[in-house]
Amino acid sequence: MNAPVRRPEWLRKEKPLTEGVVREKAAIAASGLHTVCESARCPNLSECFRSGNATFLVMGDQCTRSCRFCAVGHGRPGALDPDEGNRVALQVARMSLRYAVITSVTRDDLPDGGAAHFARVVACIRAAAPRTGIELLVPDFRGREQSIDLVAALPIDVLGHNLETVRRLYPDVRRGADYARSLDLLKRARAVCAGRIKTGIMVGLGETTEELAGLFDDCAAAGVSLLTIGQYLRPGWSNLPVARYLAPGEFAQLAEMARAHGVPVVQAGPYVRSSYLAESLCRKKI
User: Fold this and answer.
1) How far is 27 from 91, CA to CA, in rounded Å?
2) Residue 252, Cβ neighbours under 10 Å: how many?
3) DSSP category for residue 164
4) Nearest Cα residue to 233 out of 270, 278, 275
5) pTM
6) Residue 71: is it exposed, middle or buried by C-beta count within 10 angstroms (0-12/13-18/19+)?
7) N or C: which end of the chain has fewer CB within 10 A?
8) C-alpha closest to that of 2 among 240, 250, 270
9) Is the separation of the CB atoms in 222 and 183 below 8 Å?
10) pLDDT digits (tens, 9 = 90+) for 114-154
11) Which domains are assigned to the chain?
């Protein structure tokens, strides 16, 4: 067995929790809501909260899949909460958020994968905070065209679905997912969605430069206009180990490569995540 790759000294991000951030975390928890910022142990929580951005995790905190890179719990999820949309909307309004990302655990147990629940949440936010930008980061809905069309047609600014990694690594990294199915979702959403189409990937899992070039070509062909590229960081010992830590300069090279392959807006860096400062990426001109 190969020895674990040591995290470089420069890859240490401080996570300052101001009094305001602590209050917001407590208020969200008291409302019974979840943020992916905490559930996925994101290192950018404070930075995003201070910028007026937040990512809410709906449909519970238990995923029906167990992707080997992810820190979100998996198991048998509970019933959907019909009032969750109202509670998310109240928090968005209370926090005066300029931009809200709504994502979810994967709910393969639901006939529509949770598409109608996304629609309810968006409707509630639009009623309570009509000026807030909304980005959806959705699961693959097992390729159900009706579910994809429903969420893509919602009044949102961005529809996102993460490819996460290159095609070859899917069986090990994204068990239960399918690279072609995810690409088809992005392509179908582009034909329906009035907003922008976004995806995100991690690097450091063993992918090659040639494989990434192919992924960028696939993204451009599917109509992706926003792409995030970040370093995979192992959230726990039960997750996949890091194959390689990329130097900061390599992320700039990957961003340049992705743009050269036809993806117009790219945000890349060690701590970049799919919803990292999502508003600023959405507002960039294409």
Assistant:
1) 8
2) 13
3) B
4) 270
5) 0.89
6) middle
7) N
8) 240
9) yes
10) 999 999 999 999 999 999 999 999 999 999 999 999 999 99
11) 19-283 (3.20.20.70)
